[in-house]
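seq/struct pair 1
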Amino acid sequence: MEKEVVFKDINIQEIIKEKQSAFKIKERRLNEWDENYTLYRDKVVVNRLTQRQSVNVPLMKYVIATIMKEIDTTPALLFKNLDNDEQAEIYFNEMWKEFTDRENLELIAEVDRKQALLFGRSFKKINLEEGKITMEVIDPKDILIDRFVDPTDFHKARILIQTGIFRTLTDILNNPEYDQEEKDKLTNYYAKTNPTLAQDSTYEWNTDRNRRMAILGVQDSYDPTMGATYIELNEVYRYEYCEEYKKNMIFIYIVAVADSTYYKLYKSRLVDLLGETKDNFWHNHFPFTSWATDIERVDFWSDGAGDIVRTPNKIANSWLSQLVENRQLRNFGMTFYDSSNPNFIPQTYTPVPWGFYPVAGNPREVLMPVDIPDLSESLDEIQYVLGLAEKATAATSTQTGTVEKSTVTLGEVQLALANAQDRVKSIQKFIDADWKEFATLFVKLIESQQNNILPVVVSKKGRLGVKNYTREIAAKDYKSKKGYRVEILTIEDKQQKDVDMIQKLQVAVQNMPNNVPLKDIYKKHLLTFAGLEPEEISLILEAENMGMQQPVNEETQNDYLSMPELQGEQTQGDLEMPQLQGGTS
């Protein structure tokens, strides 16, 4: 029987104080994030001073969409087996492919990039649920972090808290891992209190979130109707001293929050939850990654493209609102009249074609139109402000395919476009680094939990591209003593590498024209560079080899097309599963 580990408990008030401190350093950003988001969603808050009309210049949407177009590539990740076991390496990469397909990684990456552009920073979280690795993008509003954190390595932060996790009271009470005494307290509280979604004082930005949703048209955002009692949970990741290991390591708390009262449901070392690795990875790494578009040393919550655009967008909205209201007032046809004449009480006439309207005296002396100046020149000023925002974010009109001046030469357009693309793609290095870090979490979670991860089933076409074969991949297939190294390969790098390889192979083929295996390798690289799928490449090469052995002409074409390999009849060569050896039909 294993010895039960007893942790030195801390006062829950210490966590609350650290949470409040982390909230204060981020509080200044909350209203700015709400404005960025509502402007992106083409919603504005009308006021009596600067925004009297509900109009919005879609500058925020334009800039974000333009930049997204330039950074819409998710980097290719390769996992190299450090034991030089090529078969295990193939299996592990298939595990990653199955994970990315199941989790819709392309859509997650899209949300991740958009969130970073709007708010300046984004977070991803990895987890293991029911034997399968999962991931999700976390709203920055739901993350609190130590105010003294190093933005270049947030895993060194003393505390990281994920808030805004809502679970039903029933789910909490049915969880056997949670402390029974605390669950009883929670039950007694809700038995005496009308259940609400009221939050503790450090979660005040929930009101801002509700307001944001109300602006977008959610009528019950402040008082939602629920079919069950929902309770907010906080996951608290905190460095504490561990007597057993004689060092500081990450502990995890799960805390329920009900009307500013905290209930500590769960506590353990993170390594006890996620498992041990050879390098003690989970002793000092959170199951999160985070990246920023404009990282800096002083402020963890740095600016994003949305922050640069926000003020110009608000200025343009104000001026456009004035222009719209000015046009409406001019269209009203309002008039001053001489009220000193008691016999003249002007009527409000309905305009009709060829209408005549009497006034008491000379109309030029009795009546005077209300002077409402023309504000059409503000359109030029609005365009100037939009231009400033485009230059600041490198989201120029050239990138969208628009050329504003016909006198601009082709060379000038190409140069401006190249410079803008270089500035925007500087963000890509942060994206690549973050995905590489996430892939490292993936490797370490598999290493620590491989006995708890369910096998996955992958399918491939046979060598002739006719039959489908499946293979179940379990932990024993990709297990490695030394582990795996993550390599990242961008599309540009891969294309350049392929071009270099093809050029070198071409020289080799010219010098060894009768070397059949070398020609096959050369052809395979050519087809891979053309973007064909592995099963398509196998089918083409098989047909190519058959054609070399038996030339196809009009007399033999029917015999060639009726060969068993192309009709799907099982052959010895078709039994091998491409890349995944040993597959079964």
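seq/struct pair 2
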Amino acid sequence: MSTKLIEELRNIEGSVEEYKVKLGNFIKNVKNTLILTYSGSGIIPSNVAYWYLKILKPSISTSMYSVDEFIYHIAPYMRNKAVVLGIFGEGQENNAIRFRDVCVSLGLNYLIITPVLDRRVIARIRSNNLLIINTSNYLLYVSLLFAKAITELAEEKEVLRVKRLLSEVSDFGSVVNELYNEYKNAINEVVDAVKSIDEVMLTYTPTMLSPAYLLFYEIRARGLGISIVNATSALQVVQSLTKSNLGLIVFSTDVESHVINEILFKARTRGCRVIDIRLKTDPLTAPIYGLFLSKIIIDSLGR
């Protein structure tokens, strides 16, 4: 399964440059404030972009909202004109048009990233404000696009951490086999749990939102029982554990152990089958590597 992902990553590496230039130029023109807006599964690459911008472009004030939050609560009350980046998942054409109309009416500088659209929708959105990504791996593709483009725009390229990140983003595929070998048991446990347990719950720490949601959307699309809960509040998650015959998949990083240790303890005492996927890497690359693990799990599940 890791071989398939490596091939997919090679294909992405071979075609991402054109999009990276356009996205990079858009971000370069941000002077003060950038608002990320997402709809549907667009939350997955949007969250990757948010953390990369926060850490590598601290001179830009970056915030992230759903399209409804932006349209109804943020846009009408903005005192200064922000630059707005809209990231849309499959089937979100109407929201993309709503987003575009609000940006145009307020005179905002905006860019829309979306999968393939109907030509009638494209006609509503000017081509210079539209980045259409035509690929079967849209969510992974756009997440990697953000990681690559923003890392290359990092403000402190001489810092050792940034140098290492620049090296990693240039060849993400090189880590896949090592990643698979390290987490092979967890991958197999997730596949078995999803297939054999009536209800599985996903929970995640802030860093790992993107891989958790990718797995959630794909498992749900297969008609299998799954729910997702943010793990920031341990009490919220534990209170959701009303059944002992429950699979609990936890996505986290080792620096966020304090967030999940109580969840793991209480879930196990309630008889839940717990699968702890804890990445031991930089918080910036952790969600990317988590996406790779989710993709391998999804491929292992089949259709």
